[in-house]
Amino acid sequence: MSITELMPVYPRCDVRPVKGDNCHFITDDGRRFLDFASGIAVNLLGHSHPALIGAIQKQAETLMHVSNLYGSPQGEELAKQLVDLTFGDTVFFTNSGAEAVECAIKTARVYHQAVGNDEKFELITFNNAFHGRTMATISASNQEKMHKGFYPMLPGFRYVDFNDLEAAKAAIGPHTAGFLVEPIQGEGGIRVASEEFMQGLRKLCDEHDLMLVLDEVQCGVARTGQMYAYEHYGIEPDIMATAKGIGGGFPMGACIATEKAARGMTFGTHGSTYGGNPLAMAAGKAVLDVVGNDEFLAQVRTMGEKLRGRLEQFIGNYPELFTEVRGKGLMLGLKMTVESRGFYAHLRDNHELMTVAAGDNTLRVLPPLVIEDAHIDEFMDKLSAGAASYQPEAAA
Ligand SMILES: *Cc1c(COP(=O)(O)O)cnc(C)c1O
Fold first, then answer.
1. pLDDT in tens, 186-214
2. Residue 133 and residue 131: Cα distance in Å, rounded?
3. Which of 114, 150, 227, 298 has the greatest number of beta carbons closer than 10 A?
4. Where exactly are the transmembrane stretches of this chain (predicted)?
5. What is the third-level CATH fold of 63-291?
């Protein structure tokens, strides 16, 4: 037998974390990493946050799981918290981001079928998007590397260029049900939607009775300095997927919708065995209790501006490596002149600094939202040392 016990779908590196410590983690060979990846925008409160640990411990002792066929005081409480914090009127809880996007796709389709427009099932999505790894969510992305070997894709998606409002408008046809878009593309390389684009999509949806579906799985939950990224644009979606940070490390997500958009989501149309179980609800509540208020969001914006200012200054010293800092709040990207994967590995292997590589030659910087000035200092020291010692040819 030569296959590994863990199905070998990830190119796992030899960093083997065994213990978390606030904004750092420690590996089985005793190395201590500064974690500016956060499990890819998940550990909003860092590692080992006492409020999150306490909430999970207490709920595990009290009631871990029961069926969704019973009443859920825990689910009602968290759903109300999300409804109060967002545009939404109603929430379906999931166990992952892809499932939240799946639920959003189903909600958009069934809206039209519930009002008798059976021919409207197609979502217009955007080049270089990432929506997850299920059949529907890979079909919703134009990325060939995720399709290869898994054909046929699901019908009902049409791709146009991100930030190209005219192309989005031109793609609307008799089958169009709506748009599915990340306000800030994460995997695609921290590409920020323009105001004109997001406001234009909203207007097109209003004019044609289409669903504006946002994938805020990566950019949501305080990451950008607003509770959700759509707030930066002065618009509201009809349907939104959220996950990653919402459980702070506990696997959960949610699909949030307006009453109008959810009109087809009636008894028996959707479900999940684990989705919204009491343990997940306790984790989600612990996270929202910390991040869902103006003081916390203002602090994310302050730290985001500090980090961004330092990065802008830093890249000026290395014009041969970096061209741009982009993103919002603590969802930042360094656009590089070379493939970012090599530099990410260099920081990881030689400077005990964790970041995330992304598309479009971009290095993602996604720290826990609870970072302090000392973490930014440590990050800039490691990043500067890494840039000074980096030889792209040697890495490639
Ligand atoms: C990570 C991600 C997903 C998928 O989430 P999973 O929890 O891995 O299923 C979907 N959309 C976006 C924008 C993401 O970043």
1. 999 999 999 999 999 999 999 999 999 99
2. 7
3. 227
4. none
5. Aspartate Aminotransferase; domain 2 (3.40.640)
